[in-house]
Amino acid sequence: MAFAGQVVWITGASSGIGAAMARALAAQGAKLVLSGRNEAALAELARNCGDALVLPFEATDYAAAASAAKKAWNWQGHIDMLVNNAGISQRSLAVDTAFEVYERIVAVDLLAPIALTQALLPRMAERKSGRIVMVSSIAGKVGSPMRTGYSAAKFGLFGYSDALRAEVAGLGIKVHVIAPGSIRTDVSRNAITADGSRRGVSDKAIENGLDPADAVDQMLSAIAADEREIIMGEGMEKEIGELRRTPDALHDRMAAVVAAGYAQKMDEGASE
């Protein structure tokens, strides 16, 4: 039970991967902060998750995110792991897609998780402990047709996370990025189309994808094993993700460069 007694904050917890992760962590004895927009669904989930705090807010309301971060931290006096899972997908050709759709996707899938991470980061740094988990996508490793905005935002999560990992490696904070392929959720039904409307139908690949509970068990095992990039999928999706995996040695080299820079600044400060 790697997460027993730990405080874990999950966004997008009302359904899909988020809800499955909440149930799995609750079974391990974790204390959960459950966030999303559907307060009723969050409350229903919380009733079956033991020690849980329901903390609904709109992900793109960045002021609300800062306030939520304070409430989440104060609930138990710390957060051991933040799982940035909330997101929205896309199904539309770029040539047909309104720019406002891109703004919405980037706001939800990239800026919102960055805002929440930034709100928690100083607290984790002061405590010298914590995990940041970003739920990206295989589409964040390889650009996927009909998902130009989605791929752009999910690629951005990898870039932010890689840079952040190097910066906080010496502060006891671990950064993980999950790249799911097809998992049986409502991600395709909830995807937005060229005019920003909800798609309303699923994809065959999604319907034939991994069971969310099974996928989450694999994700949590990988996090507990300190895997930095967690590629989730089967067949070609898995192969593509693995081909684009950033080598751990490169992460370590970036962290070493950052550490050397910090050491040099400290030496320069001491000599003044």
From TrEMBL:
Pfam families: adh_short (PF00106). Belongs to the short-chain dehydrogenases/reductases (SDR) family. It comes from the Bacteria. Keywords: Oxidoreductase. InterPro entries: KR_dom, NAD(P)-bd_dom_sf, Sc_DH/Rdtase_CS, SDR_fam. Residues 6-186 form the Ketoreductase domain. It comes from Novosphingobium aromaticivorans (strain ATCC 700278 / DSM 12444 / CCUG 56034 / CIP 105152 / NBRC 16084 / F199). One of its GO terms (cellular component) is membrane. The keyword Ubl conjugation does not apply. This is Short-chain dehydrogenase/reductase SDR. GO terms for molecular function: oxidoreductase activity.
